[in-house]
Design goal:
The protein is of the alpha+beta class. The chain is built from eight helices and four strands; from the N terminus they run E-H-E-H-E-E-H-H-H-H-H-H. It folds into two domains: 73 residues, Glutaredoxin, CATH 3.40.30; 108 residues, Up-down Bundle (Glutathione S-transferase Yfyf (Class Pi), Chain A, domain 2). The chain is 53% helix and 7% strand. The chain has a four-stranded mixed beta sheet. Helix 1 packs antiparallel against helix 6 and helix 5 packs across helix 7. The protein is globular and about 45 Å long. The chain binds glutathione. The site of glutathione has 11 residues, from loops.
Length: 201
């Protein structure tokens, strides 16, 4: 099977990490640019987004949580290691990723460029920053002190959210300090699911 992804997408990272944690073998990784209307991605996913998992029979599964659910059925994956608390943490982590990505998309809508911050003065950008900051604070209060023997979806999503915000908003004064989350990230850094999917710095 083949995972269409992008190295910076937090959703693609969550899907990829869940597949690794499930022990899926023979997984081909193909990087695509979701903003370039690449034919292969558009034919697999009408939404034109990553991640998209294409099975050997051509079945295409989109949405990171559905890919995680599929991974769970194939092996012993991140979902089976997740209790209610960890699913709650995963939801917050994905909410942080979603709000952060929306700021980037807002920039692109307003000025055509992720780097142009004109959108950031829009009240919707302010709401999204608040969602990122509040979500990170909640994650910091809720995350486990140490990663479990197997990574659960909460740990994967929380670390992914922290790394994505650091990648996209380095040094931003509205990003709160998250010492417990940072410790969890450090302690889980060598786990293959997180190490092999870390975004480029
Ligand atoms: N809800 C989706 C979100 C996927 C998503 O938004 N992916 C972004 C990359 S971070 C994308 O491909 N964007 C391209 C676009 O919006 O056209 C999931 O959970 O997988």
């Amino acid at each position: 099977m083949k995972l269409l992804k992008n190295p910076t997408s937090p959703f693609a990272r969550i899907a990829h990490a869940a597949l690794i944690e499930a022990g899926i073998e023979e997984l081909e990784i193909q990087n695509v640019d979701p903003w370039a209307d690449e034919a292969e991605l558009l034919s697999a996913n009408s939404a034109g987004r990553v991640p998209c998992l294409v099975l050997d029979d051509g079945t295409a599964i989109t949405e990171c949580l559905l890919i995680a659910a599929f991974a769970e059925r194939q092996g012993k994956g991140a979902l089976s290691a997740s209790d209610a608390k960890s699913l709650a943490v995963a939801g917050i982590g994905i909410g942080v990723c979603d709000a952060a990505v929306q700021i980037l998309i807002g920039r692109r809508i307003v000025s055509g460029s992720f780097a142009d911050t004109a959108f950031d003065s829009n009240p919707i950008a302010e709401r999204r920053r608040r969602a990122v900051a509040d979500g990170l604070k909640r994650l910091d209060a809720k995350v486990l002190d140490a990663p479990g023997e197997r990574l659960d979806l909460g740990t994967i999503a929380a670390v992914t959210a922290l790394d994505y915000v650091a990648l996209r908003f380095p040094g931003a004064d509205w990003v709160p300090a998250t010492p417990r989350l940072a410790t969890l990230r450090e302690e889980a850094a060598d786990r293959p699911a997180l190490a092999a999917t870390r975004p480029p710095s």
